Amino acid sequence: MHAFRAPETSLGDLDAEATASLIAAAADIALVVDGAGVIRDFAVNSEELSRELAGGEWFGRPWLDTVTEESRPKVEALIRDAAARATPRWRHINQMATLGGASVPILFSAVRLGKADRSVAFGRDLRAVSALQQRLMEAQRSVERDYARLRQAETRYRLLFQMSPEPVLVLDAATQTVAEVNPAAARLFGKAARRAIGRPFAEAFDAGSHAAVQSLLSGVRAAGRADDVRARLATEDRPEFTVSASLFRQDEVVSVLVRLYPVPAPHASDPIALPKAKTKLLKLVEGVPDGFVVTGQDARVLSANAAFLEMAQLAVEEQAVGESLERWFSSRGVELEVLMGSLRQRGSVRLFAATLRGEYGAATDVEISAVTVMNGGQPCFGFAIRDVGMRLSAPVKSDNGMRVPLRSVEQLTELIGRVPLKDLVREATDVIERLCIEAALDLTSDNRASAAEMLGLSRQSLYVKLRRYGLGDLGAEDGGAASE
């Protein structure tokens, strides 16, 4: 602590008013208390703080009565130290506010005034620091919740990996070495499974399959996906498998997920033929209002119900049998390619959005749910197709002719394949702009001036965008600011 060397000379002959001005300017709040701890005078630098503390009711009241219960021992210590002329210490005091149960954090230090039985308590407003601490605690709790969800998700996927009946391996994409194997893959490789970790994946196959496996891994690493290949294991019985691979990234590490499917025996390679005699279940499927189609691995139709024939503008089922589903999908088959890829990889797909076009050009917005079913040793695919044209709609215009922007990414993705790319880009820009404005308003507790500064906009521009996206409650004052 360093005190003034010559206060009599440097400060001059200060009167009471000058002293009061100095005290008031030195702190956010200053209290003058007597030896008994009764408030004899006070000063507050901020009108907002004065209203919140209701300081007008403090005259003649003990300081202890204006603070919360846990702060009373600290007030007593401040008054005691000031009376004893001890070195001033700063203490955190919670002053009671006008609202019931609320309090304002103030950092106080008290000093004795000359020979008079008076002490001055200098206070610093800690509300900003308290708000920052609260936000830090909320952020920490959010991180802890996210971490817990991440651990739970990791546990679930780890359990699925271990319980999968299919042989599954995880490879390092850079070195093509085995990083993990599930129990099904360990049983498949037999004794060599203990030594599989860290070894090149291609070594698990015979020499004649090395080129195909290397081509698969190289294609996945270069393009993110590649066609499945057939390969034989380097075990005694040399079983043949279909090898499928996909790329994924985790913790800045690129890995390859590899799955192995047994190749059916030669007698099972005949074309799939559905039984002519319909069961009760098949009769029910035939009469449902949603389209239902069964295809082979090549996506060619084996059977279709009446609802699908109506969507495709076909008269009889024979017109659909043997044709590829690509014939009735828009976007030059891109939708079907994405759907079939997901179906082969996951085994099932739910609520896939697409557009189905009939023989005579009628377009129908549909949602497709599909599943893979083994039949005679070979997979076939079942597609449930629902007409959702009445439920989905493109961006509309308001009564005054202005375009109403989309409100979510989900709505934006529904437009893919039905709206030109340049319109999609414009809609995506609007969605991103709206999300950024909402995030800025949330971070600033709806303080629009601060949100505009955070976004690098003028207040007038922000009000225009708020009105455009229908955000917030724009009153007359806001409307006037936006029109300036």
UniProtKB/TrEMBL annotation:
Q: Which SUPFAM superfamilies match?
A: Homeodomain-like, PYP-like sensor domain (PAS domain)
Task: Point out the signal peptide segment.
Answer: none
State any GO BP term from the record.
regulation of DNA-templated transcription
Which Gene3D superfamilies does the protein's record reference?
Answer: 1.20.5.430, Homeodomain-like, PAS domain
Q: Which CDD domains does the record associate with it?
A: PAS
Molecular function terms, GO-annotated? sequence-specific DNA binding
Extract the InterPro entries matched here.
Answer: Homeodomain-like_sf (IPR009057), HTH_Fis (IPR002197), PAS (IPR000014), PAS-like_dom_sf (IPR035965), PAS_4 (IPR013656), PAS_fold (IPR013767), Tscrpt_reg_PpsR-CrtJ (IPR011785)
Record's protein name: Regulator of carotenoid biosynthesis Transcriptional regulator, PpsR
Q: Which organism is it from?
A: uncultured Acetobacteraceae bacterium
Annotated PAS domain residues: 153-224
Q: Name one Pfam family in it.
A: PAS_4
PROSITE patterns attached to this UniProt entry = PAS (PS50112)
Source taxon at top rank: Bacteria
Cross-referenced NCBIfam families:
PpsR-CrtJ, sensory_box
